[in-house]
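seq/struct pair 1
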Amino acid sequence: MPLVVVGGLVFGFGLGLSHMARPEVVLDFLQFEDFGLVFVLGVGSIVAGIAFAIGVNFLDRAPLTGRPYARRLKSFDRSVLTGGVIFGVGWGISGICPGAAYASVGIGNYPILIAIGGMFIGAYAQGLWRARTSDEPAATSTSD
């Protein structure tokens, strides 16, 4: 668990330092005016790839959940496509993704709390919808 906290601290500090926690920077990227986010995403992807390679090969349990640490392949289906489109629209409208939104509060952007509230309401609404449309409740699903 301490490793997860340290990772979150590094993530949040890095987002703040790189200005990626500022919606105007993200919106500039989405409008093809500032490509700094590509560098941040690229470095993050490289580090995550290395961490997952090491985790799968050397750790027997995931740091946060304690479950066996293994790759989980998810098929590319309608839910992934629809969810990605909805996430992208929300990112474009708010100018910030969920991780950067939390870091944005840390740099004093308190109006972003409205977007964070919207994320929670949206996630809750999706959970209710999924529970009502599936045979088993979302809380007992192991496919996610």
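seq/struct pair 2
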Amino acid sequence: MELYSEPLNVDKITSKWYKESSNLNYGAFITFIGTIREEDGIEALSFDIYEPILKKWFETWQEKAEERGAIVKMAHSIGDVPINKSSYISAVISPKRRVALELIDEFVEDFKANAPIWKYDVIDGKRVYAKDRSTPMRGAGILAKESN
């Protein structure tokens, strides 16, 4: 897990991960790159991250991947990321493509639902909490899921 206080350098990060895995004799290296798109007049998105919970969440995913013979990687920005720049990259490296294809989908979907990252729109230089595009999380204050 890598955190950056700037937009992500996609080429540098993915090349580094590819080089790190090149001697493993794995057959699949699949990436997902999240890019900030222009919508609703935003000039950027801004992110706050609660690192201790994110680290624990990511460690759980490393264990899940290891059980399937794979490796997961993730990078995310903290702070402002302008439109058309990347704020999130994930990768799955695996001996078999099917495992990598399944894991990247599961990983990205779980990230969107459960990673402790709070998103803000940046409009006219001001951060506005993007509540309508946020996912409720158990125990997360105003965004807490209701317990059944």
